[in-house]
Specification:
By secondary structure, the protein is of the alpha/beta class. Helices cover about 60% and strands about 15% of the residues.
């Protein structure tokens, strides 16, 4: 039940009119269905109203005249009863048709909205996901969609049906007895006043209940995630005590909320009975005085029972509709976010080289790539991908008030291994985020094989790069499918070759189903090091010209690191590689090491040169050496 007895407090939309307009655009995709549904609800309401009115002629023309008649003629009575039955059957069919169509319409609309939401979300820049938590985004697909399902499946249909029924009943009540209609309106005003008072108090306590539920859920989630820490420090009793306190607050809030919610319907029911009794008493007096007949008062009493109920029901649905509109606004806010812009026009293509050195584009993977420049006169011209990456005067900040990189200039020649070291927050990961255009630079320029990366299509730029991140994410699927995610058209042999290259083949072979072992919950059935090896294999199968390793071996023990070092060297051979590492032993063989501090490169050179300088790198390395 919605309204005061709803499960969550009603949130009000900021601009209900605009939101309704956008929802109607989705609904108008089902014009024919909506037309049939509207006709069905009109027929359903008309059948209910007409069926009640038939009590008057049945009583006045058949039942009353037949009282005391020893040999009554029931043919007319049977005919009107059959007619009444047909009307109610028509109403049942119309009601079923209406509800069924609205379920189909609402399911179709929500399907389209989810598709639009997910499709648009995939087009949003990384900056948007950095600014919004996963839970906040997921609530669009769960809570907000659920409120819309409730509104479209029940709220709006019931509201429309209630409005038609109340209108029809009110008209018929006026036709039967204007005086008794005035009494019904006065009682209705009293009912609405009670709904406002009790419902308003209930809404306040329901908001408190939702607030306390959020505290309890958040506390439980945090404690479940931190079970190891709790047990290490033996804080079980303290945790249980805090949970009992939060649970007690929730119990108090829930008791208060449901106290008011649970008394509303009995109060409304009793007021309805009082109204029925008053109508019956006044109607009886009017019938005795000759102002009404028995059939009229019988019909009117039935109308009085069906007059207040739809209004009470509609008032309850109103909160549901307001909450759904607020949820729809949140969905449309995401849909209104500007997608990631891409002005690039240069594409990445497979190529073959002929004996004369001519570059020829091909659809088959050859391990050779080129940048394809559109040229309307010559058709196209090609620049071979070598992996030459250069930064020229790059300054960048995730927001205007905090500059992360300050005038960074560097270069990576084809096939070189460039390492970035420095303290947390120095800007190492930011550099790699700029290479693949997760963020665009406001100042300076980044070139890739002499081409400004802004001119390269983002999808093609990122396809030329492969990243192994510190936080490995594995999808639900087999080991084979997770490695193949690096290149979806890779064969099984390609996947196995990549796994061997990353030295992951050995542990994969010992899994229950080998490469067909199913991974769930982000690879929870694997160790952190094994998950990292799969990420390296995923990068290997992509076979890119440029490789980015962001703490790629941070979760691998020293023994495992030594085992994969040869495989990593094979993987990096002939490629430009950017490495971010805190474990300085992994960057010793780099062609150039950049030491960053406070967004600037303070030292650069190979390992031997930096050791001789005895600067920041020397301090970091000797400290690490002593610790090891």
């Amino acid at each position: 039940m919605q309204g005061p007895m709803r499960r969550r407090p009603a949130a009000k939309p900021k601009n209900a009119g605009k939101t309704i307009g956008r929802l109607l655009k989705y609904m108008f995709r089902y014009k024919l269905h909506l037309t049939i549904a509207a006709a069905s609800v009109i027929v359903s309401s008309a059948a209910n109203v007409a069926g009640t009115y038939f009590l008057k002629p049945i009583i006045n023309q058949y039942i009353v005249p037949l009282i005391g008649n020893k040999d009554p003629d029931l043919s007319g009575f049977a005919s009107i009863i059959i007619l009444l039955g047909m009307i109610y059957i028509l109403g049942v069919v119309a009601t079923y048709t209406f509800n069924r169509l609205m379920l189909n319409i609402s399911a179709g609309i929500l399907y389209k909205m989810r598709v639009d939401l997910f499709t648009h979300m995939e087009s949003l820049p990384i900056r948007y996901f950095d600014a919004h938590t996963h839970g906040e985004l997921m609530s669009r697909y769960t809570n907000d969609i659920d409120t819309l399902r409730e509104m479209m499946g029940r709220g709006m249909p019931n509201l429309f049906s209630s409005a038609l029924t109340v209108t029809g009943v009110f008209v018929m009540m006026l036709v039967l007895s204007p005086l008794l209609t005035v009494l019904a309106v006065l009682m209705l005003i009293l009912m609405l006043y009670v709904i406002r008072k009790i419902g308003g108090r209930s809404a306040i306590f329901f908001k408190n209940q939702q607030k306390e539920i959020g505290k309890v859920n958040g506390y439980v989630e945090e404690m479940v995630e931190g079970q190891k820490v709790i047990k290490v420090f033996s804080h079980e009793d303290t945790v249980k005590g805090e949970f009992e306190r939060l649970n007690e607050e929730l119990c108090k809030a829930a008791t208060s909320a449901h106290t008011f919610a649970n008394i509303l319907m009995p109060v409304m029911g009793n007021l309805s009975y009082i109204h029925y009794a008053l109508t019956a008493a006044v109607g009886a007096v009017m019938t005795i005085e000759g102002y009404l007949d028995v059939g009229t008062i019988a019909s009117f009493l039935q109308y009085s029972r069906s007059f207040a109920h739809p209004i009470t029901q509609a008032s309850q649905q109103l909160n549901s509709i307001l909450s759904a509109l607020a949820g729809a606004e949140r969905i449309f806010e995401v849909l209104d976010e500007k997608p990631e812009t891409d002005e690039g026009y240069i594409e990445l293509v497979h190529i073959e080289k002929r004996e004369n050195g001519e570059i020829v584009e091909t659809m088959n993977p050859t391990g050779m790539w080129a940048w394809k420049h559109p040229d309307w006169e010559a058709g196209a011209r090609y620049t071979e991908v070598t992996g030459d990456v250069r930064f020229e005067g790059i300054s960048f900040g995730y927001n205007k008030n905090e500059i992360v990189l300050k005038g960074i200039s560097l270069y990576a020649k084809p096939g070189q291994k460039i390492a970035f070291v420095g303290s947390t927050g120095a800007g190492k990961t930011t550099i790699t985020n700029l290479i693949n255009r997760f963020y665009d630079v406001p100042d300076g320029k980044i070139t890739y094989d002499g081409i400004n990366i802004n001119k390269i299509k983002k999808a093609d730029l990122r396809r030329s790069l492969s990243m192994v991140l510190q936080d490995t994410h594995l999808f639900t699927g087999t080991v084979m499918e997770n490695i193949r995610y690096g290149r979806l058209d890779a064969s099984d042999d390609d996947v196995i070759k990549a796994a061997k290259l990353a030295n992951a083949h050995s542990f994969i072979s010992h899994l229950p189903q080998g490469y067909n072992t199913m991974l769930t919950s982000d690879g929870a059935n694997l160790s952190q090091g094994q998950r990292q090896l799969l990420a390296i294999a995923r990068a290997a199968v992509a076979d890119p010209p440029v490789l980015i390793l962001d703490e790629a071996t941070s979760s691998i023990d020293t023994r495992t690191e030594a085992l994969i070092e040869k495989g990593m060297d094979t993987l990096m051979e002939g490629r430009t590689v950017f490495v971010i590492a805190h474990r300085l032993s992994t960057v010793r063989n780099s062609n150039a090491i950049m030491v960053l501090e406070d967004g600037r490169i303070i030292e650069r050179g190979d390992h031997e040169d930096l050791i001789k300088m005895q600067g920041k790198y020397y301090q970091l390395y000797t400290g690490m050496f002593e610790l090891s």
